[in-house]
Specification:
mainly alpha; globular; DNA polymerase, domain 1; 3 domains; hpI Integrase, Chain A; three-stranded antiparallel sheet
Length: 415
């Protein structure tokens, strides 16, 4: 496939001798099957050949190739390159190509078996994450924050040295929290504290720290129910939904995704996990498998949402064995969307209607669903059932946004 890109004998011989030819051919096959245009495949091939030649000339171990080497190639080598391989030079194109190529290298069993060992901090964070997943039962979104803050803490305390937990002192923990929390908002500081507290409980469970370390993590002041959740008006919801061009495949898909958020108040991760078999068209229900509460829930399928999903499936969704309802509309097209895709759909739509300062993510749409239900006479228990809250206390915050009813019971202001 890349024979025309390796016409230079020196480049060809170097790449073949280093054993990169099978990986380059596998890359071409993968790009073709993922729906990339021929021009894009050619550009990505040029970048991959160039990078492979650069690796081979430096006698680097392919199993050690990571983002560090990619960054070095882009920032140091590419601007002053005089390699005979030539090829595309645009940084953004080369970076995209190398992301695919490095993934191919790491998927090769011969290479992956010789991967560089994890650092001490990597191993520690991985053990903690396994505990959060298997013992605590936390979802990926929650674990991502805890991994991030734990890694930052360990890097600050130990750097690249060996992780010696016996060196941890109460003073170090408190000083770190004071320093780090001073640059965070109250809610973020609360997440930082809970993440470290969770990590210390994990250490305590394995006998690696004393109870005093857990108690040393303060609880940042954060007053529950102190603020009103931001919500959209009915007019703003209509404006948001009207912005999608449903004459295009992307527009039909994005409209259906947003309908999931505005009609049922689904979380972004729940939209991502929605599968074709989860929708019962005859009964008019949708099943949510393994939601945040780690249980299966069933909700009614509104006509508006059902019509939006059906239109997308019939007139936009690729015919594939992939079972996720919502797929990518750009290569690789057979791959399902991610949580970031859902968020970007909403944020881009908000920007097009001038509501980017109001809508910064998907949570506001979930708040809006709860508020609209209350305004239309739903009970707090019914709202909790739709949002799948396990405790009514979580739903109580929405009682503050039911302003029409609050106005009825409010005492008159004394004159």
């Amino acid at each position: 496939m890349f024979r025309d890109l390796m016409e230079n004998p020196r480049v060809c011989n170097t790449i073949v001798a280093a054993g990169f030819k099978p990986s380059l051919e596998k890359l071409a096959s993968k790009l073709h099957s993922s729906g990339y245009a021929e021009t894009t495949i050619s550009f990505y091939g040029q970048a991959a050949v160039h990078f492979a030649y650069w690796i081979a000339k430096r006698h680097l171990n392919p199993s050690h190739i990571d983002e560090h080497y990619v960054a070095s190639f882009l920032s140091r080598h590419l601007p002053t390159c005089r390699c005979p391989s030539g090829g595309v030079r645009q940084r953004i194109t080369v970076r995209a190509a190398l992301r695919h190529f490095v993934a191919i290298l790491h998927s090769d069993p011969a290479i992956s078996n010789n991967k560089r060992k994890l650092t001490a901090i990597d191993s520690e964070v991985k053990s903690f994450d396994d505990y959060l997943r298997t013992v605590s039962g936390l979802q990926e979104a929650t674990r991502a924050y805890r991994r991030r803050y734990t890694r930052e803490f360990l890097m600050e305390i130990f750097g690249h040295d060996c992780v010696n937990l016996s060196r941890l002192t109460l003073k170090q923990v408190i000083q770190y929290l004071l320093k780090r929390a001073s640059h965070l908002k109250p809610q973020s500081a609360k997440v930082l504290a809970s993440s470290l507290r969770s990590y210390f409980r994990f250490l305590r469970l394995h006998g690696k720290c004393e109870e005093s370390l857990i108690l040393a993590v303060p609880a940042p002041s954060s007053y529950k129910l102190a603020s009103l959740p931001r919500v959209l008006t009915d007019r703003e919801v209509r404006r948001l939904l009207a912005v999608f061009d449903r004459r295009t495949v992307a527009g039909r898909r994005d409209y259906a995704i947003t309908r999931c958020l505005t009609d049922l108040g689904l979380r972004a991760e729940e939209v991502v996990r929605l599968r074709l078999e989860d929708i019962d068209w005859r009964k008019g229900t949708v099943r949510l498998v393994g939601s945040k509460s780690r249980r299966d829930d069933q909700l009614p399928l509104p006509n508006s949402l059902g019509a939006a999903i059906a239109t997308y499936i019939r007139r936009g969704r690729l015919k594939t064995s992939q079972r996720q309802v919502f797929l990518r509309v750009r290569p690789p097209i057979e791959r399902g969307i991610t949580r970031r895709t859902v968020c970007n759909v909403v944020i881009r739509a908000a920007a097009r209607v001038g509501m980017q300062s109001i809508i910064t993510g998907t949570r506001i749409l979930r708040h809006t669903v709860a508020t609209r239900m209350l305004h239309h006479g739903a009970s707090l228990k019914e709202v909790a059932d739709v949002l799948r809250h396990r405790c009514l206390d979580t739903t109580k915050i929405y009682t503050k946004v039911d302003l029409p009813r609050l106005a009825i019971v409010a005492a008159p202001w004394p004159k």
